[in-house]
Amino acid sequence: MTTVRQMFALQELDIILDRVQDEHAKAEYELNNGDEVHTLESELERDAEWLQETKLQQKATKLEAETQKERSETLNSQLYGGEVTNPRDLESLEREASNVLQLVEQQEAALLEISGKIEEAQTKRNELESKLGEAKAAWKVRQSELQSALKELSTEKKGFEGQRSKLTEGLDPTSLEHYETLRKRKGGVAVVKVERGLCQGCRMSLPTHQQQRVRSGRQTVLCSSCGRMLFLS
Ligand SMILES: [Zn+2]
């Protein structure tokens, strides 16, 4: 016959097993997802692409600015060279020269902005690179910590699992199934102690006749309020 005492012992073992399994799962999760190195590497990659594009843009703007500058010089020499004398032609030449000059100024301002951004990006890249170096070193340490923790936890788990199967060998299957269903439904606690006439699972006061049935230990008594198995130590 399976006694509630045996099931209480099983539950204590299961609580420990749950903790070991939980720690094992957490360590495993961190080992698979805790690596900051990948995040930093992809950030660096993105920044490098941006830098490459921006440098191309800088080159194109520089070329365009030079072309407009040359044009501006040509227009100026036409304007002041004395070859054009017609006032109307001079006026339109002057207008064009002023337009081109404006364009040159715009492009120079754009170039200044671009080189500022490039400088910022290069500073950021240096920072990221040193961060990456640190992250790689730290991860190496953490990784080996996690690996040895996992190894220990696995051994611990195996030990407790061995104890558990020994314990459950002596239990009848129906009681065991009942215990397991209850544990799943009741937040991991299927068997509770009775102390001072109170169910320690739900804190409800138990009727005297129920307390007596628990005390006799002849059968499994369920709390009439929360449905857990009652145990008197
Ligand atoms: Zn209860």
Q: What does the model show?
A:
The relative contact order is 0.14. The protein folds into two domains: 4-10 and 172-231, no CATH class; 34-169. The chain is built from five helices and three strands, in the order ααααββαβ. The chain has 233 residues and is mostly helical. The longest helix has 83 residues, at 87-169. The protein has a three-stranded mixed β-sheet. Helix 1 packs antiparallel against helix 3. The model has no long low-confidence stretch (mean pLDDT 94). It has helices at residues 4-33, 37-80, 87-169, 173-185, 208-216; strands spanning 191-195, 198-199, 229-231. Bound molecules: zinc ion. Zinc ion binds next to loops.
Query: What small ligands are held by the chains?
Result: zinc ion
Poorly predicted parts: none
The helix content is over 70%
Q: On the 0-100 scale, what is the average pLDDT?
A: 94
Number of helices: 5
Q: Please write the string of helix (H) and strand (E) elements.
A: HHHHEEHE
How big is the Rg? 40 Å
Query: Strand pairing plus helix content: what structural class?
Result: mainly alpha
Overall, the morphology is rod-shaped
Residue share in β-strands: under 5%
Biggest β-sheet description:
3 strands, mixed
Order of strands, widest sheet: 2-1-3
Number of strands: 3
Give the N-to-C terminal Cα separation. 18 Å
